[in-house]
Design brief:
The chain is mainly beta. The protein has a single domain (25-725), classed as TonB-dependent receptor, beta-barrel domain (Maltoporin, Chain A, Beta Barrel), CATH 2.40.170.20. It is 3% helix and 59% strand. The protein has two helices and 40 strands. The protein has a 22-stranded antiparallel barrel. The chain is globular, with a radius of gyration of 28 Å. Residues 1-29 and 70-80 have low confidence and may be disordered.
């Protein structure tokens, strides 16, 4: 038999790892573990002086954000008519899910994660990290579940406040605040919150371009200011009817008006002396959305459960873009009027019944119905001689835009059955079978109606090799959510030489087979966690840009189905306490990924990557708690692997690259529990660059017309947040 020979370097590595793993962890005796669950009692976080449930999560390796911070707003917008994520409210994302008392918030904008800042740390009993699957969980098919359990006997009110202010690179100062009130009165518990969050943005960019013969073309300098604040009002209610039934109701209203001003100077380098043209744009944008969600749950004596939920939401946006040429004597000449408006609404109803079929097996059967509607309008005015100016278009002449005024509606039904089997204390398997039927109808400038149906299976297998080492494998058919704004004409805010791009009423859902193999190792004594995910996605009906030209004098492209493709890669995450250097309160996290993809380009018939599909990213962050000084501080560095991240269109190719993003923070907590936090974001200005290569006629002709290189910065943002409770 041939004897395996180990290298001295490998032996030294194993010795260091062994000593490291034997080193006692921070407060390890207060953290309990079993094969699938890690439990952190509230006493574990006492030393840190945590103010909220989010602060507590940030101290758990591999769960929260190492640097904390972020927006306190729970509102925001998901985009006009959905996105490219998986369909269905009940479908698991494969990443971490957050529950409160075992329940997920019935909402999308008003999600569970948005409530964490509003839960006082004194209200938390313990936090569970659940790595297994179970029919008792309120989510299915997730990588891991974080369950925040609150104290049942808590009946005192709590008022949490936050005062914050941001200072930007151009010395602009914008205040904000957050007020949250929580209480429990008998069987009723509730959290009420009002948030004003700064969202001001100032972007400075400079662009140089050369012509096809490599001679200078022009230089464009742009200054864009977006004066925006987010105002959100939320309410989360829960009521216990008894030991066997409960209900929850969640509401949200958010306003995010974003008036924007743009100043642009264009220097023509093709003539001598150079000619300077100055432009300005006024874009008064309005945005607001609301959401109502709720659920009811009933348990029965045979360990079965009935649950129903609903979500209703609406997203409203409108914008008017007017562009002026500015002359030396101060006169203005309007050369563009572009008005757009959209209203997206969604209705989701879901019901299910879960029951045991054997001692360690249960089945959930149910169904989901969803209606999503987009109403979109767009009007374009240009200074065309000989036309009839219209006051509705700012005094310019109306230009017809195909598919500018349309309504798109999708009706979807999805019955499902989910089987959960705990094979033994180390192994579990969860299998899904879902049938989707959908009907998409469009009317207005374009009329079209189509039906679709899909069978969507999924299998998720988990094996705990040891209490610390878990292997997970999953196979799933994913049908992505269509973005309804792709069905209609829309404004093109990425290209100054283009005002609108076309819609496509013949889109089909993109879908893919998703294969994942995940290894997770939790270091002994709560020292940290390391995991790796090897994945492969086999895509069908991929949605990217296609040629929809009807008039050869006016080339047009739109998002459409271009064919089949593949994505694959490896993601490695680590979050470790630095016990090996005698700094157990220093938590260091790293996320590293490398990815690739391939698909056939519809314009050139060559094999390439998916549009803007990244090559990977590396992020490093740390948090250092100093309990004796009631202080914690940290920072993060993040950089993507640039190169070959492109978007191919009918007559151009766009590439992107950018500099690393660096941020730092420091937080002091007073004896009374008030947090003073200072953040510095984008310390390196985080310059982002874009190269656009334009071609004469179609891209496939390969006749170079122009090369544009633009770089933009937002600059350093400093903020101060004061958080406390009464």
């Amino acid at each position: 038999m041939k004897r395996l020979k180990l290298s001295p370097a490998f032996i030294r590595f194993k010795l260091v790892l062994g000593i490291w793993c034997l080193y006692p962890g921070i407060n390890a005796q207060s953290v309990s573990e079993d094969e699938t669950t890690v439990t952190y009692p509230a006493s574990f976080f006492t030393q840190y002086g945590s103010v909220s449930a989010k602060d507590m999560m940030d101290r758990i390796p591999g769960v929260g954000s190492t640097t904390g911070g972020g927006s306190s707003s729970s509102g925001g917008f998901s985009g006009a008519g959905g996105g490219r994520g998986g369909r269905g409210f009940g479908s698991g994302s494969g990443s971490s899910e957050i529950l409160i008392n075992g329940k997920r918030t019935a909402g999308k904008s008003n999600a569970t994660s948005g409530v964490l800042d509003r839960i006082n740390a004194d209200q938390v009993d313990y936090i569970q990290i659940i790595r297994g699957t179970s029919g008792e969980l309120d989510v299915r098919g997730s990588g891991q579940v974080i369950n925040i359990v609150l104290l049942n006997e808590l009946d005192e009110s709590s008022l949490t406040y936050q005062l914050n202010a941001d200072r930007y690179r151009d010395s602009y100062f914008q205040p904000g605040g957050n007020l949250s009130y929580s209480n429990r009165i008998g069987a009723l518990d509730f959290v009420l919150s009002a948030v004003a969050e700064p969202r001001y943005g100032h972007t400075e960019s400079e662009e140089f371009s050369i012509l096809g013969d490599f001679s200078p073309n022009d230089r464009v300098v742009m200054d864009e200011i977006r004066e925006q604040s987010s105002y959100d009002v939320t309410a989360n209610f829960g009521y216990e009817f008894g030991d066997t039934s409960s209900a929850r109701l969640n509401t949200l209203f958010s306003q995010n008006n974003n008036p924007t001003k743009v100043d642009r100077s264009i220097t023509d380098l093709t003539v001598t002396p150079n000619v300077l043209k100055v432009q300005k744009e006024n874009i008064p944008g309005k945005q607001h959305n609301w959401e109502i969600g709720g659920d009811y749950e009933k348990f029965f004596g045979n360990n079965s459960r009935f649950k129903m939920l609903f979500v209703l939401n609406q997203d409203n946006r409108s914008s008017t873009r007017e562009r002026f040429d500015i002359f030396s004597e101060g006169a203005e000449d309007k050369n563009l009027f572009l008005k757009s408006a959209s209203r997206t609404s969604e209705e989701i109803f879901r019901g299910s019944y879960t029951f045991d079929i054997f001692e360690d097996q249960d089945i959930e059967i149910g169904g989901e119905r969803a209606v999503t509607t987009l109403e979109s309008k767009l009007a374009l005015g240009l200074p065309i001689s000989g036309g009839n100016p219209s006051t509705a278009l700012g005094g310019l002449v109306s230009v017809p835009v195909s598919n500018a005024n349309s309504t798109v509606e999708e009706l979807r039904y999805e019955p499902f059955i989910i089987h959960n089997w705990t094979i033994n204390s180390r192994m579990s398997v969860e299998s899904h079978l879902l049938y989707e039927y959908s009907e998409i109808e469009q009317w207005g400038d374009v009329r079209n109606k189509r039906d679709f149906n899909f069978i969507k299976p999924k299998v998720d297998f988990r094996y705990n090799v040891t209490p610390n080492l878990q292997l997970r494998g999953s196979l799933e058919k994913v049908v992505t959510q269509l973005r309804f704004s792709d069905f209609v004409a829309a404004t093109d805010d990425q290209d100054d030489d283009s005002n609108t791009f076309a819609g496509n009423s013949n889109l089909r859902q993109e879908w893919f087979w998703k294969y994942d193999f995940i290894t997770e190792y939790r270091l002994p004594n709560d020292m940290g966690v390391v995991d790796a995910n090897l994945f492969y996605h086999d895509h069908r009906d991929v949605i990217e840009r296609i040629d929809v030209t009807s008039d050869e004098s006016n080339l047009l492209s739109a998002n459409g189905n271009i064919g089949d493709g593949e994505m694959y890669g490896l993601r490695v995450n680590g979050s470790v306490r630095m016990n090996m250097i005698n700094m157990p309160n220093l938590l260091v996290s790293s996320n590293w990924s490398v990815t690739d993809s391939k698909i056939t380009d519809p314009f050139t018939a060559v094999e390439r990557r998916f549009q803007f599909y990244g090559r990977g990213r590396w992020t490093l962050s740390f948090r250092h708690d100093v309990p004796r000084w009631s202080l914690n501080w940290g920072g993060s560095w993040s950089n993507r692997f640039d190169g070959n991240q492109k978007l191919y269109d009918i007559d151009d190719v766009v590439s992107t690259l950018g500099e690393p993003n660096v941020s730092l923070f420091a937080e002091y907590i007073t004896e009374g529990g008030t947090s003073w936090r200072f953040d510095a974001r984008d310390l390196t200005n985080n310059e982002q660059c874009r190269e656009r290569i334009r071609f004469v006629g179609r891209l496939s002709n390969n006749i170079l017309e122009e090369i544009e290189n633009r770089c933009s910065i937002r600059g350093l943002v400093m903020s101060l947040k004061i958080t406390g409770t009464f």
